[in-house]
Amino acid sequence: MCDCRRYEYLVPVYAFDPDAHHNRETVLVWTEKKEADRQERLEKRKATEKKTVEICHPAEFKQNTIECTQKVNLLVGSQVVTSVSNTSVQFSMTEDLEDGKLSESLTKEIELKARVQEGKESTAQPAEAKGELESNKDAEAEVPPLQSNRVTEVEDDRNVLVSTVPVLDKTEASAESKFVFGEKEMEHLNTILGKYVGTHNFHNFTAWIKAEDPSAKRYILSFEACEVIEVEGMQFVRCTVLGQSFMLHQICKMIGMAIAIMRGYAPESIIDTALRRDTDVNVPMAPELGLFLDECFYTGYNKKFKNTHDEVSQKGFEKEIADFKREVIYSHIQLTEVKDGTMVMWLHSLNDRNYPVLLQPGKQHQLK
């Protein structure tokens, strides 16, 4: 059993920016699932388009004409013949597949042609009938081909989706925001994190543990923001916490409260209130992405068996460990943050509706 553990938490710099709100950050919300759904919709469109073209293929013209005529009979309530021109069938099938009904102009044209075929009207069509046919032909000529119309619709759909949910460039956030995490911000953050150091009752920073439970008391040896690092163009604040043991969600809640204070949603005194045994506070919990175990310390074991056993520690492997963290762990955190926008989505929920404790300073409600 180790004596204490040290955890690291990488916090994106923009999380501390008070002006970084959801209107700008939602551009990150473009997950693989949404992309897969979009591709599925496009494939369904293409399949429908292909099916429509096959229906209007000349080899199957006769059967398609009969089906089209049956639909016309149901809609217009009259008996029509099956000898309709190929162009008219394609136009009617397009209308029928897209809207589930025939256009008024097409219905008139089919009725007129049917009357001519059955001999109900003279071969020399009246001037009125000729005028209707001419106008229908002109209208039909204005209708774009089926294939080009469908392809244009698919392209427009793709353009609308991409413009609605753009992908954020790695440098876009820093270019739009003037926020810089400098020495002043680092000092402020360390002041906040320092409030957790010592033995406190952390019942508000975990789940299912009551204030009177002895296990709610934990000893934090140190908690500090060490440096600002850059991973693939994205800046993170590297925070380290050293403690004897931790409860479920404890570190994420401590980070979440610190972020809320840094963004100006709550005063620093809220930490003192949350650490009291006689209060119940709904503490914001930061995402688990960014948190990982850095090292376990076996001080007691090494001291007891120093004469007979080798020391259990990471000494001598500092460089390999640092390279592994940067190349594997840090890189994974950065890629996941860019892809899923985990911290961004959490920032959307960081408001006084979800956490009444985050009311504006001066309006803090009385906690009991």
UniProtKB/TrEMBL annotation:
Cite the InterPro entries for this sequence: PsdUridine_synth_cat_dom_sf, PsdUridine_synth_TruA, PsdUridine_synth_TruA_a/b_dom, PsdUridine_synth_TruA_C
Q: Which SUPFAM superfamilies match?
A: Pseudouridine synthase
Residues covered by the Pseudouridine synthase I TruA alpha/beta domain: 195-298
- Residue ranges annotated as compositionally biased, kind Basic and acidic residues, are 129-140
E.C. numbers: 5.4.99.12
What chemistry does it catalyse, as a reaction equation? uridine(38/39/40) in tRNA = pseudouridine(38/39/40) in tRNA
Which keywords annotate this record?
Isomerase, tRNA processing
- The EC class name is isomerase
Region: Disordered; residue ranges are 115-146
In its UniProt entry, what is this protein called? tRNA pseudouridine synthase
Query: What lineage, starting at the top, does this entry show?
Result: Eukaryota, Viridiplantae, Streptophyta, Embryophyta, Bryophyta
